[in-house]
Amino acid sequence: MDISLIVCTYNRCQSLGETLERIAVQVVPDDVAWEVVVIDNNSTDSTREVVEEFSKRFPSRFRCVFEKQQGLSFARNAGIRESRSDVVAFTDDDVTFETNWLWNLTSNLLSGEWAGAGGRITPAWAKPLPKWMSVDDPHTMGPFALFDEGERAGQLNRPPYGGNMAFHRKTFEKFGVFRTDLGRSLDSLHGGEDTEFGGRLLAGGARLRYEPKAEVFHPASESRMSKKFVLYWWFWFGYGEVVQLGRPSGARWELKGVPLNLFPRILRWTLQWFVTLDPARRFACRRSVWYIAGTIFACYRLPRIREGRMASDTK
Predict the structure, then answer these.
(1) Residue 17: which CATH number?
(2) In the listed set 193, 220, 247, which residue is the last one of a domain according to the structure?
(3) What distance in Å separates the CA atoms of residue 155 and residue 15, rounded to the nearest whole number?
């Protein structure tokens, strides 16, 4: 087997079916063996039946694996364990792409010259952008998985995103797998496991490749194009940074593990939020408040987070 495509899913049977239909018609050279491993992460809807239907239609291509430990990182790690190929690719259960996407993403990895690859991710907007959002603001675009390094393929100097990435199996053997104290679980937006893993590879000298022709379109529904969703995402982004990197440095004093210099910062951004009139700038201030609030919450909970991680590592 040459390529394994991992699709992790939780209670999205309708969008999963649409994504699997697009995967089924992927154009890959005849002499390249590839498989699709769907990781069912405790779904309670018709996910199992959807995947079984594809397994019947394409018995040598699709298979389903059940992962009872809740969380995207547990699901992705199960996909790594269950896959049988030299190259392991990942995508989401609600994206769309052209028929040459998988081959464009993975073809340059088969030689072993590259440790991994990432492709372009373009949001599929459900409606025109409101005034407080801009595609030119990377902070606003963060929750929508926008990933675009231009039109030229070449070496990638930043971690790819989980909805459009692939790695040679030897990278997992050398650098380990995805951290299970990071990654989404149920309705939580606590992510970062994908970029942490890519950052680990880059720090270790691994070479990653950017493939602009391997493009996926990630849905940006009306519910996600809301201030509530973006603020919630930034809260968990701040939380995840502390889990990944530890407490922010530079503070002389702490209160229950929280650096005291975070409180003047959140107060300053709150005041700017209330006095700013420009919609985009006003929301940027509000976004900073939620980001710092997530940072404070994680600092307070960090000892328990680390205890949980140690317990998980010993299992």
Answers:
(1) 3.90.550.10
(2) 220
(3) 32
Do both 127 and 71 map to the same domain? yes
**CB 156 within 8 Å of CB 118:** yes
Which letter does DSSP use for residue 147 in this model? B
Residue type for position 166: A
Rounded to 10 deg, the angle between the 72-82 and 193-203 helix axes is: 60
Mean pLDDT of the chain: 93
pTM: 0.90
Query: How many degrees, rounded to 5, is the angle at CA 138 between CA 274 and CA 183?
Result: 100
Would you say how long the chain is, in residues?
315
Looking at the fold, whether 215 and 235 belong to one and the same domain comes out as no
Shortest CA distance to 96 belongs to which of 10, 168, 21, 158? Answer: 21
Domain endpoint, select from 178, 194, 220: 220
Query: Which two three-digit tokens encode residue 101?
Result: 């996407």
Beta bridge partner(s), residue 216: 97, 121
For strands 3-9 and 34-40, give the pairing: parallel
Angle at 65 between CA 60 and CA 70, to 5 degrees: 155
DSSP 243-279: HHH-SPS--S-EETTEETTHHHHHHHHHHHHHH--SH
Digit-coded pLDDT (tens) for 122-161: 999 999 999 898 888 888 888 998 999 999 999 999 999 9
For residue 149, what is the DSSP state?
Answer: -
